[in-house]
Every structure is written in C-alpha cells, then in structure tokens.
C-alpha cells in the first residue's frame, strides 16, 4: 500500500515535472521563435542598413568626386583670377611705363628740338658773325687794295695829252663829257694826221676816195713831258718824212703832267 502511495506520488510528481517541462519547452520555443523573428527582423534591418550604407557610400563617393571637381574648379578659378589680376597689374605697369616712356620721349623730343633750335640759332649767329667778319675782311682788303692802288697811283704819274697848231692856242684832249682825259705811264695813244694838202683835195679824193693819213702810236712818257716829233710812224711814214708843202700847218703834240699847275 505504501508502494502504491509512493508510486502515485511519484507519478504525480513526474506528471508535474513533465507538465513543467512542457511549459518550459513551450516557453523556450516561444522565446526561440520570438528571438528568431527578432533576429530575422534585425537581419533584414541590418541588410537594409547595409544596402542603404552602400547607397550612401556611392552618394558619398559621388559627392567626394563632385567636391574634388568643385575644388579643382575653384582652384582653377582662383588661379585664373590671380592670372587676370597679374595680367591687369602687368598691363597697368606696362601702361604706366609706356606713358612714362612717352613722356620721356616727348621731353627728349622737346629737348632735341630746343637743342636743334639753339644750334640753328648758334649757327645763324656764327654765320652772321662769319659774314660780318667776311664783310669786314673784304672791306679791309678793299681798303688795303684801295690804299695800295692809291699808293701805286701816287707813284705812277698821269698826263694830259695836249696839242697846238703853229704855236697857237694849246688844246687838251678831252672825253665825251668834256672832262680832260688823262693817261697813266705807258698807256698807248694812236694819232692820225692827214697827208693831203689844201691844193690837192679833189685829186687825192678822186684817187683814193679818202684822205691819206699817217697813224702814229705813242705811249705816255715815264718821266717828264715829251714831244712827238721823234716818234716812229705806225702804218705810214712820220710827219717829218713827208715832203714840205705850202701852207702846211705845224701840229705839235706834247704831254703835261696832271699834277702840274
């Protein structure tokens, strides 16, 4: 009887344990399924996150590439701006230099023009001085020549040519203006004398058509007055060589110094 009680108790105990185990198994299975579901959900979320992460990485790479491009463009723009500023500064500097060079060239041109004008004025002054000196020199030379000429004329005597017919009034040879004609030493004089007599004009004219004349050449004397009776004839015989004729006029030529009163 005790064994039966003990068996009944054992059976109840085992039944209770079995029930507890079933409950525990059910609870465990429930937890397992819940954990599995949760794990699957977490895995899905993780996969989605991974997928999203991959997408974000692509976007990040694109953004980095675009950022790099934008950075490069900014660098190029800055470099271009720097080059533009540098070119502008260079152009401005070149403009200043060109303006300064133009001003210097204009100043040099004005200075050169002023120097040219000064040189031209100096040249003109020197030319005027040279012309003045040349005029003075020529005037001095002319004065010197005039003085020498006057000195020579003072040493060279001049004469008047005079004539007289049969010891009558003395006549002085004159120029066309009526002034006495003077001759210096050595000046040649040509004198023609008619050879026809008053008694034979018709015969002589009919024979020759003109009066026969004797041409005499004489030079002004070098010292003192001189007569013509001893002069050689030129182109004919001298007056003394002709035969004497009746009523022949005696014409005498002689010199008188101009400085003789």
From TrEMBL:
Residues 78-114, 178-248 are annotated as: Disordered. It comes from the Eukaryota. Residues 103-114 have a biased composition (Basic and acidic residues). This is Uncharacterized protein LOC115009601. It comes from Cottoperca gobio.
């Amino acid at each position: 009887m005790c064994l039966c009680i003990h068996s009944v108790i054992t059976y109840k105990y085992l039944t209770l344990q079995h029930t507890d185990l079933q409950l525990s198994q059910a609870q465990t299975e429930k937890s397992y399924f819940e954990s599995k579901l949760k794990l699957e959900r977490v895995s899905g979320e993780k996969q989605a996150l991974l997928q999203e992460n991959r997408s974000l990485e692509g976007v990040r790479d694109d953004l980095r590439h675009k950022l790099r491009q934008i950075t490069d463009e900014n660098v190029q723009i800055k470099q271009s701006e720097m080059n533009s500023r540098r070119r502008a500064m260079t152009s401005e500097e070149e403009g200043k230099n060109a303006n300064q060079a133009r001003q210097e060239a204009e100043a040099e041109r004005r200075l050169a023009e002023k120097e040219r004008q000064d040189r031209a004025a100096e040249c003109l002054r020197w030319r005027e001085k040279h012309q003045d000196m040349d005029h003075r020199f020529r005037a001095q030379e002319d004065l010197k020549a005039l003085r020498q000429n006057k000195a020579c004329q003072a040493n060279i005597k001049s004469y008047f040519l005079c004539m007289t017919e049969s010891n009558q009034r003395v006549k002085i040879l004159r120029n066309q203006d009526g002034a006495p004609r003077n001759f210096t030493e050595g000046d040649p004089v040509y004198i023609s004398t008619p050879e026809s007599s008053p008694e034979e004009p018709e015969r002589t004219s009919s024979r020759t058509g003109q009066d026969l004349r004797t041409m005499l050449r004489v030079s002004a004397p070098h010292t003192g007055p001189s007569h013509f009776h001893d002069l050689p004839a030129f182109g004919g015989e001298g007056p003394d060589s002709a035969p004497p004729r009746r009523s022949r006029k005696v014409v005498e030529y002689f010199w008188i110094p101009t400085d003789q009163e």
